Amino acid sequence: MKSQHFYKGNLNLKDKIIVVTGSAGMPGSIGHNIIFALASEGAIPVLLDRNARGFEYESQLREQGLDSKFYQTDLSDADQIKTSIEKLSAHYGRIDAIINNVGVNDGVSLEDSVEDFMYSLKLNLVSFYATVKYALPLLKKSRGNILNVGSKVAITGQGGTSGYAAAKGGVLGLTREWAVDLIKYGIRSNALIIAESYTPAYENWIETLDDGAEKLKAIKKTIPFENRMTTTQEIADTVLFTISEKSSHTTGQFIFVDGGYVHLDRALLPAKN
Q1: Residue 215: inside a domain
Q2: Is 184 exposed, middle or buried (0-12, 13-18, 19+ CB in 10 A)?
Q3: Maximum alpha-carbon separation in the chain
Q4: Domain membership flag for residue 216
Q5: How far, in whole angstroms, is CA 18 from its chain's centroid?
Q6: What DSSP letter does each residue of 252-273 carry, written as one string?
Q7: Annotated catalytic sites, by residue?
Q8: Do the Cβ atoms of 66 and 3 come closer than 8 Å?
Q9: CA–CA distance, 167 with 119 (Å, rounded to integer)
Q10: Nearest-angstrom CA–CA distance, 222 and 269
């Protein structure tokens, strides 16, 4: 017997079929928070990721009475994406939104091989294109929408991560191109841009540093609003609002969820002691 679940329902996402890539990250990750935030609205998250952790999340979602499915997919492989989209299309018969969330800041720099650079593009950019391309017939049918998760690295640079920076810059280009190209079908396309968010992967990186606590403290000081990192729940909440009908006249936009990190005056930062 399926368990009873009480949905918030504030965003009118109930029973919407939402495809989420990069959705089998560690508990507390952006993808993890997105799929369970969708579930809290009664939406049906469909998971695409290569990590087998997705089977556990599928089980948890189904225990809530949702017809969620996990399609284990190497998102650097366009053929696997095509196969997964075909399978989920046959099962559900529609797609209401795509959240392209996969992203790995892999540190592929100018010192690395062209092959490594190309792999970074396949995972962090080409996967976005392939997912939308193969899902497009159903997106047209539903007049659905696309939300691409981007990074401030595309705007500010970072150093030592040419592959990721190029890919995330491309994601912004695709976001605006799709907003223009798909407007005739009533399909919206937006990007969410993240700066400093305390994900499990970020925490793991901090723990590898000899002065991790001091480094984290210094990073927080560079974030103007409240001198803290963006939570993954705040990101998930903004994602849900953007794909919902509450944001029905928003398209072609780059939405920064970063506490003012990218744009606000540096004079707002705390004075150095």
Answers
A1: no
A2: exposed
A3: 61
A4: no
A5: 12
A6: S-EEEESTTTTTS-GGGSPPP-
A7: 164
A8: no
A9: 10
A10: 6
pLDDT tens for each residue of 7-53: 577 899 999 999 999 999 999 999 999 999 999 999 999 999 999 99
pLDDT, averaged across the chain: 92
Strand order in the sheet with 17-21: 69-72, 44-49, 17-21, 97-100, 145-151, 188-194, 254-257
The helix or strand, by DSSP H or E, that contains position 118, with its residue range, turns out to be helix 114-121
**pTM to 2 decimals?**
0.92
Instruction: Please report whether residue 115 resides in a domain.
Output: yes
Owning domain of residue 131? 17-207+232-259
Q: Considering only CA atoms, which of 117, 122, 150, 127 is closest in space to residue 19? A: 127
> In this predicted model, what pLDDT tens digit does every residue of 55-74 receive, in sequence order?
999 999 999 999 999 999 99
What are the DSSP calls for 215-250, one per residue?
HHHHHHHT-TTTT-PBPHHHHHHHHHHHHSGGGTT-
CATH, residue 248: 3.40.50.720
Query: How many separate domains does the chain show?
Result: 1
Length of the chain: 273
**Of 201, 113, 101, whose CA–CA distance to 151 is shortest?**
101
2 is a domain residue:
no
